[in-house]
C-alpha cells in the first residue's frame, strides 16, 4: 500500500489490487471485442454496393480483362492495386476492408455492360471475398480468354 499526500488530504492506493482490477477490465474488453465481431471475418456482412454517382468514374472504367481475371482470393491489396488500380470510390488504402469498382465489360462485340465489383479484405489485408452486383458481369469475367 502506498499513501500519497495531496495538500491536507492523504490517499491510499493498494497497487496490487489496482493492477488486478486493471487486468480484469482489459480481459473483459478483449473478450467483448471478439464477441461483438471486431475480429470477425468481413464475409459475414451483407454485400452492399455504393451508388455509382459517388464514384470518381461513375460511367465505369475499361479494364484489362487478363488482369481482372487474376484477381482472386488471397491476393494482397498491393497486388490488387497493381492489377486493376485503385478503387473507384473514396475508400482509401489503409485500414479499409472493402474496395469498390465500376468496370465496362464487353458483353459482345461493341456491346458494353457497366458492372460493379466489390473486394473485401481480411485482417491481413488479403482478398477474402469477391462480389459482382450482376451475375452476367461475373459470367463475362469467368469466360475463358479469347
Automatic annotation (TrEMBL):
Keyword Signal (UniProt): yes
Pfam families with a match to the protein in the record: BamE (PF04355)
Keywords: Membrane, Signal
GO cellular component: outer membrane
Domain (Outer membrane protein assembly factor BamE) ranges: 60-129
UniProt KW Membrane keyword: yes
Cited InterPro entries: BamE-like, BamE_dom
Source taxon at top rank: Bacteria
Signal peptide residue numbers: 1-33
Protein name: Outer membrane protein assembly factor BamE
Source organism: Methylophilus medardicus
